[in-house]
Design brief:
The protein is α+β, with helices and mostly antiparallel strands. The chain is 30% helix and 27% strand. The protein has helices spanning 9-19, 29-41, 113-127, 149-152, 226-238, 272-289, 291-294, 314-326, 369-384, 406-419, 434-440, 465-482, and strands at 46-48, 54-58, 70-75, 97-100, 103-106, 136-141, 163-166, 174-179, 181-190, 193-195, 201-208, 244-250, 261-267, 299-301, 310-312, 330-334, 342-354, 357-366, 389-396, 424-428, 445-448, 453-454, 462-464. The strands form 6 sheets. The protein has a 6-stranded mixed β-sheet. It is elongated, with a radius of gyration of 24 Å.
Length: 483
Amino acid sequence: MKITDLQPRLVWECFDEITKVPRPTHHLDKMLRFLVEWAERHNIPVKTDEVGNVAMTKPATPGHENAPAVILQGHQDMVAEKRGDKKHDFLTDPITTIVDGDWVKADGTTLGADNGMGCATAMAVLLDDSLVHGPLTALFTVDEEQGLIGANGLQPGFVEGDILLNLDSEEHGQLVIGCAGGKVTIARVPYTTEAAPAGLVWRRVHIDHLKGGHSGMEINLGRGNANQQLCRFLWEASRKWDLSLGAIDGGNLANAIPREAWAIVGVKPEDAAAFDKYVEEFSDMIHAEYLLAEGKDFTFDAPETEAPATVIAPEKAMQIISAVFACPNGVQGMSLAVEGLVETSCNLASIKMEGEDIVVTVHQRSSVDSRRDEIADRVKALFTMIGGSVEFDDTYTGWAPNPDSHVLKVAESSFEDLFGHKPRIEALHAGLECGLFLEKMPGLDMISFGPTLKDIHSPSEKCNIPSVAEYWKLVCEILRRLA
């Protein structure tokens, strides 16, 4: 079955078109061109701004011209993650979708339902002339996943409205009224190399197939962080044997829990058997520790590999291993205001060798800006102690909940009347663009909701088909009641 055979057909047809357009974060030229051409093809007024945001408009249903103006908003970009064995170029290749029972997933890559499904929904509303609604604007922002660049760059007057429906949440049955703020910390640690010692045996220490996931939505699930577990092993092994570090690499994106990391390590021949035995012992240990969070399918091994030409200077190598092992990671505090909500977290996102620096990227989130900044400063203190320089990037503020919101009350009553039970009213630990929209358009009334997505920001991402049908009904009913 193709996704264009699914219901509601109009939403899935729009999503199918989106999956054919390469659109990783910071590479949205093809998506911008697609949206403009799509609007022109359907005779929908469209405009763009300097940063690449796209706005399309639709007049009110006759007789509803005086209803509140509504903005339907989603972001154009997707997280580009794939399995290590998957050949896929996110800059040129379309996403291959698979219908698997009640779910749609991709073939070895992220699906891009975050937030392609939100964009597809807005496009379907623009096309469906059977709907009753007030004046509508569909806003497609750029580069939400790294830096919220579209929301940050939104200029006064580009879009106007009284109510904003953010279509970027991942659990049907949940109405979101607040979210965390965030900050990305980038540490650059200079290093020197020397000739690789002769006579060593070399291993590629490798952890792979962890579940990963969204560093806000799934940070509370206790999943393993590949970067930290790799450096945990290296730190503990270095207490037993002299190690030479030829290379190290792990993770990719600031907002994705790292699933894979590796290092090239040399040991003396007389230590090789004991080292290999410890690899097996360490693998057994972390499989036991993470059995409930990760299952049995992840791997930790250290096969033989070729000797590198150079190694990182030993003192600096140990400093880097120690700092990454010690770096804050995971949940740092729970909210005392909202039961069950993560207040503050830290994601040790990536380790990369870039030129003469080793670059470590860490993503902090918190619903309390001062706590976000405190964790970022702790990371800065750690890496400056080993000679690194630290900069902060992609700082964004949170969205304070408004339980008296008019659109919330409309959405809540719509949901209960449609489905016979109350939705959950919640704040998220993930970052949304809503806080920035409120800064740009004070007084804007907002909620966020969406269909059920699982394992976003990972190659296991999937979208629940029945939830899309109910979510579409909810969007249409909210628009009708607001009109």
